[in-house]
Amino acid sequence: MSNIHPACKPVSGDFHLLNVQIKEHVAKSFTALLTCNIKVPYMKAVNLEGPPRAARREAIKDGMELGRKFLAEGEAGARSVCLKLKKTKWLPQQLVNVDEKDLYTNHPLPGFRDSQELFAKEEELVPPGEGWIRHSPTMLVHAHSPVYFVQKGEKAGKYCRQGARPGEWVDIDPPHAPQEYDIKVRAASASCVRRGTKFDRAVTLNDVTKIARLSLKLALSFVDRPATGFALFQGLRTSEAAQWCAENFHKKLLPRLAEKIHVYKTEELQEVLEATLKELDTEVMKSAFPFSGCSALLALLLGNRFVVAGVGDCRVLLLEGEGKGAGSTRLLDCEGRLDDEEEQLRFWQAGGMVVDGLLHHQQADKLDDAKRILCAPNVFDVLLAPDDELDVKQVRGAYRKLALKVHPDKQKDKDSVEMKAYQYAFARLEESKERLEGMIEEDLEACKQMRRVLHAEVHTRSGAASLLGVDWTPASDSILEEIEQDAAKAAKELKKKFAKLQAFAPDFGQAETICDEAVRTMARPCTVESLPRTEALLKEGLQMSRALGVRDLRSPRSVVVMEPKSASHFVSTSATIRFALLCGATAALKDDQLVQSAASHCRRPKASALAWNALVDAPSSAAVCISISPSGKAEAPAAKRQKTAQGADTVRARHILLRHQQVRQADPMLRRDPGRSLQEAEELALKTLETLTKTPNQFPKLCRCDGKSRRKCFRANHGNSCTLFCNLTAEFYSHRDINRT
């Protein structure tokens, strides 16, 4: 057919969508429906409906006529046929060769496709999982990966990424199909504050996929199940850093977890947790509380893989078995304890020392000559006191005095370790003399400027302002940007004053870092009221040499470092195990103490965590227990246990309910508040549980109220909000008959 209507001519590589359907009505009548989507000369949709017919073959014949006329004369011709068909009655001989398949498979002209076939194919090419959005007419993209899915064309159904060059696409494997493991997870945290402030924070994410979807609008549909997360933070100096990390760690962790929709290697999951800790550390260092710090511990359970990462005073213990025969394995033991010899050597060389069990900056008056020379923060402090004049004569005189004291040949009755210290000290003394003389001869004024910078206390606002020559008064956030610009400009000018010494001074980089630190101090938001309290933290020592935050001990010299460690464990689907997440005081407990104290609470994570806290006497302590056991979903359900005959004077009891101050008083007729706190209620619950474990017959006595009324607790508190003892018991004596009297 050469007489094709111009509006129906297809463009090369494109297809018009021509479709004819037969619609069956309730009254057993049939209608031909023609739909066509035209791409040229402009986008247009045409919908035409034929007259109702009593037989389906007649409606099919109408549809074929509509299609032919539309292809030949366009929309106007098809509409004229619609009017003629209302008056047309088809003869039987005209319907002999009518076949409904011709409406879909034998279009008269090339370039037209059946939309039904196309739509069916598109329905089949929908990628699995959530988070896919439209990228182009033929592709979808997973925004957080980013992975592209091709819906149409030669590579329909393929997954790809953008290559290094523009327009280049690289084929990749399909996303990971998540697997559901037959395990049951129970987790609980417990904290104890004996005096002072609560420094610990514990967070449990029962379902990270749900939290990511509802809280962050992220799709985590490609991770194995169960998918749970845990975090434990122990504050250092103050609780501000721990509080901020507890509130924001999931905002750093879950987006990183959503960056990959393929299967994660175990090493990659460990890197995700370590990167999350580093990002939290960066944010705390930039915050309004940079001198606060914390020990941090993160854990992820994805399917049968348990991954942990931590920094500071934290430890993870794996408990296997039940009762007194349970075994323990250290899964993660972070570095940073002050009694470790290697760690002592590291922070001593970085300029730190332990005073009264806490880590501080070194104090020169408490060191001998050799150690003072070795730990001097710069070449000026090796030879000169802060008040000494800076000239070559003073440098040479100080060198002669110190050389007589630390020369190795002058030392007697020294062991090999001390002798090496004197050898290193004398070598640094000679090097510092040569460097300092060369710097003074090069530019004396530049040396004085560098010395002033290296001795500045830039972590206080007054010290930073004095170094840069700007106003130190705390300002509002509205002009904070202007203050930062002025401080940056002053720091740039100050660096130019000692720039000549770059080739001579070994501490040139340290001086530049101090100038940059002064700018950050001036740009930090603060108020007149909060400034003294914030800067008072600079005088407090630290219990660990590795932590998150504590900017004053991290820059310009790394007395404290932030180097997270990670570990992993594959969980068996046929055994019951527990993980102990310990931070702060609980991390110092011995393994056998942890095993014995929670030996009878294998399936009670809350009781286990409370038992571990009861072993320490620190001002604040915390622990998290994760119990993993087979869920039993794959097994056939057990037969229902038959109820036993009971008398009229017995009831069935399961829990002992303990009221405390935080319970809302729902019924004014209930007995008065006993005055105990939540922590006291938990300690009493643990004590009661351990008593019942040893002597179950004590249940009737222990469940009575301790007020004037002798009503039972389970009767007095029925239907009201209470601290349920089931948090500890977990199916303990679930069907025990208790006499009312």
From TrEMBL:
The protein, known as: Uncharacterized protein
Ranges for domain PPM-type phosphatase: 184-628
Taxonomy, superkingdom: Eukaryota
Lineage, opening ranks: Eukaryota, Sar, Alveolata, Dinophyceae, Suessiales
InterPro entries from the UniProt entry: DnaJ_domain (IPR001623), J_dom_sf (IPR036869), PP2C (IPR015655), PPM-type-like_dom_sf (IPR036457), PPM-type_phosphatase-like_dom (IPR001932)
Organism this protein belongs to: Durusdinium trenchii
Chain ranges of the J domain: 378-441
